[in-house]
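INTERNAL AUDIT FORM
Audit reference: QA-55
Scope: verify that the stored structure record matches its stored sequence.
Auditor: D.O.
Record contents follow.
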Amino acid sequence: MFCWIFGRGCGSNREARENEKLREYTSEANKLISRSAATGTQFVELHDNIVDLTREEISGKLGQMSDSAKAAADETGKLVAPDKAERLQPLLQLSMDMRVSGLDKFRSGILDTLDNKDLQNATINVSEGMKDLLVSDAALERYRSSLDAKLQAAKISYEKTTPSAYVPNKDDATSAAVVAYVKDLVGEESGDELHGVAVTGLTTSPARVDETESGIAVLPFSDTFTVKVTVENQGNQEEQNIPVTITLIDDSGGAQQKETQKITRLKAGETATVIFEKLKPSTGTDKVNTMNVVAGPVRFEKKTDNNQMELQFVMKAQGT
């Protein structure tokens, strides 16, 4: 009656208060989702590059992710949802809780795999962990879209909730993909796969102009020094992130110079050239430089005697 007589618009005020509560809730929820998204990015990076990590690194990184996920799940439980988002809060809690269980199962299965414990059970744990993480992604996406719809309906300005996915490629959670993933981790090779790379070329600029009686190459003096290394994939499988390392040292006892680059992808039968420009050879014909380059080895490679090449040379002093 008071509102009707004095035109206070009690209904409008109540709606405004509810909208403000929804906005504040969204802001707090978004902070938690952003933290979880950062952990998800770390998980995807580890999942895709796990063969390059040591057991200690894997255990430590997954342990930190699990602790972060548990903290986010605990704080989600303390978040008070307004009436307009009350039915959505369980979805957010489900997503956070599933991320905790997923990370714990994945970590347990991976560490058991690396410790050669019951590979079958370890694979099951990895598989269940990936499925839990996939469910968490789906629950969070449902929460995000539903919350955004409510915010739009309220016609209030807002910051959209953060996208977050622990399993961006859903196929990674299939049973077949997990089995292959675990086998790759323990180094089981199957079928007629052949893995192997070889260094097939090593040239310098400036190039050799002569050689000593003992067969050591003689290079003219130059302020710049460039080395080109050619690497060939001699297997029948595509290789990725192939390390190519070059070292240079002279016989006067100076410090060793070392540089590493990676070939991102090399299909079977293909070659790639890697260029090094930071090496500084010693000058003077009395100083013999020994340069060694090594490619790989890649995973499952058995023949490694062609993975390296060496060059000994002297570089003339300036003005000679």
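Auditor finding: record pair retrieved intact. Residues 197-315 form a domain with the Immunoglobulin-like fold (CATH 2.60.40.10).
Action required: none
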